[in-house]
Every structure is written in structure tokens, then in C-alpha cells.
Amino acid sequence: MYNLIMISLLFILTLSIFAQQQSGDLIMIGPGLLYSKPIYAHHKEKFIPVPAVSVKYKKFNLNGLTAIYNFKNFRNFNISAGLSFKPSSFNPEESYEFEGIKKKKDEINFFTKISTRKGKNEYGIDFLYDLNKSNQIAISLYFSRLLNLNFINMALGLKFDWESQEKTNYRYGVFKYEENAYIKSYLPQDAIFPSININVTKRYNENLFFLNLNLKHIPSRIRKSPLIDKKITFTIISGFAFKI
């Protein structure tokens, strides 16, 4: 159930990219299909059908389990804030080697976002604070460019996520009291995760076909954790959304 919600969130993020480009109120519903390669060792790759709902009403956006309110534009900068829910994707039951490793808490993030758009380019910064686990902070810097081709629209994005040591130690590390015969303690400290995102959309009247590819590089200090066995994780999402 947790993994299904996680995948639905990724689907919704793709749909929200399109919604943000539209003026006026908007409601979109549609089916999608997703392939995901988890970051954690012994966790199987997933290929799952997922639903999604995206709603845009005046300054309010609801994209799945993420709620955003856009305050105002200030000198070409857009300022917004919101709440997001992100279930933990780590399941200690996936392997006997994880015996004694505690399941990670879900994330309830309060975030603020500052962004600006110049022509087809968008720049932004996000600040996140996990309300469900104190002192877990993340900061994201991103850049994206829209490409209007003859038959499709494409957005290319580059993003850098910095996560505090409290966050990385909890999400990817092993504490001393969790050690067992197979796994020794390891705390990775803070880290930066670079990622590339490619989003392709095609309009059919007021409906939308989309394809999204996300590649994230896992830094070496995170890969040294006995819970992690990936250097790169990737997610592919495709689907069709209907405007109602």
C-alpha cells in the first residue's frame, strides 16, 4: 500500500507540470503506468498501474497528497507554500538481513517554494521540513526548460537535492542499536542528490498524453550504507489524463 501511494505521487507530479502551464481552473483525472527502481537493497523493481487526480482552483493546487497555495508574484518571483505526504519506501521485511532494522516513518513535509520564469526557462528553490521527524531538512535547487517541438512539448529539468545529516542518517543509515550479524552501523551524514528529469506531453483536444523519465544519482557516502545497493535510480511514468 505504501509503495502504491508513493508511485501515485510520482504520477501526480508529472500531471501537475502540465497543470501549472495552464491558466484558469483545472481538474484532470486519468490512468497511468509506472516502472520504478527502488534505492534500497533487496527491494524489487515495480511495474504498477496507478490512478491520479490533479485540481487547480485559483491560487490553490491539490496534486494527490500535495497541497500548494500560491501567495503572490513579487518582482517576477512566485512564492508558494504547502504540505506534502510521502510514505516510507523502506520495508525491512524484504530481506532477513534487515532483521532488527526499524521501519522508517512517513514524511509529512511543510515546504516553501520560490521560483521565477524567464522565457522558456524556470529557476527555483524549495525548502522542506519534515513535521513527522524533527530536524530533518532538505533544500532543492532546480532548473527546467520548455521545448515546443512540432508535435510534442518537452520539459528538460536539472535538480540538486541537499538533505541534512539528520535526514540521511535516518533514511539511509543504520544506527548502532540496529546492528545484526549481517549489517553493521553506518551513518552517511548530509548529501547532495543530483537528478535529471525529462517530461514529454502531447495534447489531444483538452486531454493529455504524457511520458516522464527521472534519473537520480546516489552519492558515494549514501551508497556505502548497507541498506543501499544502487548508484542510479530511475522512474518511468506514462499515462493519459482527461480534463473534466
Could you characterize what this model shows?
With 244 residues, the chain is mainly β. It has a single domain, classed as Beta Barrel (Porin), CATH 2.40.160. Helices cover 13% and strands 52% of the residues. The protein contains three helices and twelve strands, in the order αβββββββββαββαβ. It has helices at 2-20, 165-172, 220-223, and strands at 26-36, 46-57, 60-63, 66-74, 77-86, 107-118, 121-130, 137-148, 153-163, 191-204, 207-217, 232-243. A twelve-stranded antiparallel barrel has the order 1-2-3-4-5-6-7-8-9-10-11-12. A hairpin with a 2-residue loop joins β3 and β4. The chain is globular. The model is unreliable at 1-21 (pLDDT under 50).
Element-by-element helix/strand order: HEEEEEEEEEHEEHE
The beta-strand count equals 12
CATH architecture label:
Beta Barrel
As residue ranges, the low-confidence spans are: 1-21
CATH fold label: Porin
Per DSSP, what share of the residues sits in E-state strands of 2 or more residues?
over 45%
